[in-house]
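Q: Protein A?
A:
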Amino acid sequence: MGREKDAETRRYVATVVLVALLASVLNTAGGLIFNSRLLIVNGLTCIANFLVAIANVYFYRRQLEPEDIDHPMGHAGYSLSASVTTLLVYAFVLGLGIDEVLNPSSYSVSGSAWIVPLVVALMYSASVLMSRRLSGGFLVYSNVTTSEIAESLVALVALPLAHAFSFEIDRAAAAGMLSYLAYQVAINSKGVIYKVTGPAPPPKVYSGLLNDVKSLGVKVKDLKLRSVGDNYVSGYIVVEVPPAESVKAAHELADRIESLALTKYNMRLVVHVEPEET
């Protein structure tokens, strides 16, 4: 079962990267061939998307690596590195796109330009669905990639109008796309910054672990949890056992709680056992 899941993950990752590469080529070449500034801007964001996809693959592999001396609690934090890289690349492309849109020269958009965004929208729709299944840093990637779909849909409408009436429609649509990209960068930046602070996990994780430990017949004196990366939790718990409990039994209880937290909640938990106060 594990091998099948790994093979499926590799297929998804390969597809996401391939789509980003093909969309980059199609939009950039389409912008040059069909004389559309909107497609050129779309091409820039697609190139960014391709670079981000490569970065996400790298960081995805890093977060799966086992513990080492520098990372005794594992490499789950690399999922945030993928998210930060995504935002940095798109912010850079945002600057390039603004420079392209502000170019004052006039041009004439080809009547066949709409074919490019139609194909790209279909490809990116499949890519977003696959990247959401991968979770981790790919979640931010999928959120930003939705802007690529939006760009393609707008281009599908704007390009025929720009061909029929004025190139200014094409340029205005490009400006609108950059505004949407800026919005996406701002919204996702807020989420990433919050995750970097190591916030508490969802309440259901806290209450679920608390109830599971209490069901073992022990009292919970203290429990502190924090999120690490996108889907990993760490923390510590202090439990009380009867004073007459043997050291061996207390050790077995701690191991049981640690195993429960890891298998059920993907949580690295430090368990401290104290004698019950009388």
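Q: Protein B?
A:
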Amino acid sequence: MNERERLLNLFNKKKIDLIPWYGDLSWWYNSLINKDESYKGEYGYLKMHIDTRVGIYLYPPSLWKIEYSEDIKFIEEKNGDLIISKIITPFGELESKIKILENSFTTAYITHYIKKTTDLKVMQYIFKNRKIYPNYEEFERIDRKWDGYGIPVALGPVCVSPLQTLITRWAGIQKVIDIYIDNREILEETIEIIQDSDNEIFEIIENSPAIIVEFPENLSGEITGKNLIEKYELPYWKKRINQLHKKGKFVGIHNDGTLKGSLPLLVEAEFDFVEAVTPAPFGDLSIEEIFEIVDEKIIIWGGIPGAIFSPLYTEEYFEKYLKSLIQFVKEKKNFVLGVADQVPPDASFERVCKVREILEKYGR
């Protein structure tokens, strides 16, 4: 049984011979290609998964392409360790600054696009003036290329919930809360416009060849919070999940932060799986508490905190944690072994490979 067959059998409630193992190696990949050029490019990305024997699932080509009206201009420039992005429209300009953190192979927002309430009008204009087109051929090409080594998981808009989009990409949590308190009407107006604009995207997704769809929310229960999730995200997730379920899609969500304030609501939303689940002591719920909440209603995808791939943790600790986790979940019918959230750039090649070795010994 190959890795694709294991995952699809688990989703379809059929027998499997081994716990499926699908890890997000994308962050680690950024450091790996500096050490070994054979991993560069499209085939190199697949080769990394083949050599480490980790199921591949993330970052196939998007199912759609976006074109904007001619009066919207996107400008991006690099200035030292800053990426400065500007969006110019007839209603005004937006600018964000992202700092490149070379030592950690990542980036961080210095300033978001939305700095004042009136900036939301510019954002509204951008979402109202775009066209969406299917990109099925590229997705299907990668699906064939990955074959039995895994399965491409189609990602929805980043993020699917407009409120989460504002929090993670456009405004940041503090500015969203400020606007929520001071001018809730324009916030809700913006949310509605984004939802309407995304209708085209979800029509493309529901009619696509993708089997599994994930909402890349970057959700953390203590940041968005139970009240905001219940008010602005839960009803919308239910709508989109129902739309995709009618077309036979399996639908999940990326919750890579805390779980106490979000996991019960994800079960209520009727997601099929939650990906990047981080148990204690790195998260706020133990693996036992996580399964008490979900029972068999939802598939848990994750379990291995990304931090323990780092040399800061001993080999003994890594192996002990992994064996204990596998012993607990191997009788579960709703578990996919994954990384919560990503393998860090300082991880050793040998430790990434070690997961498969331990899994085959203890996870059958």
